[in-house]
Amino acid sequence: VPVVESGGGLVQAGGSLNLTCVVSAGTARLSAMGWYRQAPGQQREMVATIISGASTNYGAFVKGRFTIPRDNAKDTIFLQMNNLQPEDTAVYYCNAQFFLPSYDLWGQGTQVTVSS
């Protein structure tokens, strides 16, 4: 499996979780990576993305609570989530984008559940 997430789980409101995503194929043409989430009955939405280098972008709901560090040497990104709230409950997916040719891959998702 070329894109694998880990680190989801159950946490109380106000708590923290760290997610990890490792890309293991096509890494020489990896251009961007990101985290997306999908709650039951909702559309998938962007949480955070990072392109080659360090340019990051966050969903409006993040409000400074999450960061997306990247370890280029290991083709790995993380999602450090603080002050989690019940509305953050969702399946979190990692996305990897490649160039030449242009395509992207998704991980299988990891469940994050925040209890009130």
The span between the termini is 34 Å
The main sheet comes to:
7 strands, mixed
Multimeric state of these chains? single chain
Shape: globular
Strand elements, count:
12
Helix % is under 10%
Mean pLDDT: 94
The poorly predicted ranges are none
Q: Explain this structure to me?
A:
The structure is a single chain. The chain is an all-beta fold. The protein has no helices and 12 strands. The protein has strands at residues 3-6, 9-12, 17-23, 30-38, 45-51, 56-58, 66-67, 70-71, 76-81, 90-98, 103-106, 110-115. Strands 2, 4, 5, 6, 10, 11 and 12 form a 7-stranded mixed beta sheet that branches. Strands 1, 3, 7, 8 and 9 form a 5-stranded antiparallel beta sheet that branches. Strand 5 (45-51) and strand 6 form a beta hairpin. The chain is globular and about 45 Å long. The termini are far apart. 28% of the residues are buried. The mean pLDDT is 94.
Summarize the helices and strands and which ones pair or pack.
Elements: E1 3-6, E2 9-12, E3 17-23, E4 30-38, E5 45-51, E6 56-58, E7 66-67, E8 70-71, E9 76-81, E10 90-98, E11 103-106, E12 110-115
Parallel strand pairs: 2-12
Antiparallel strand pairs: 1-3, 3-9, 4-5, 4-10, 5-6, 7-9, 8-9, 10-11, 10-12
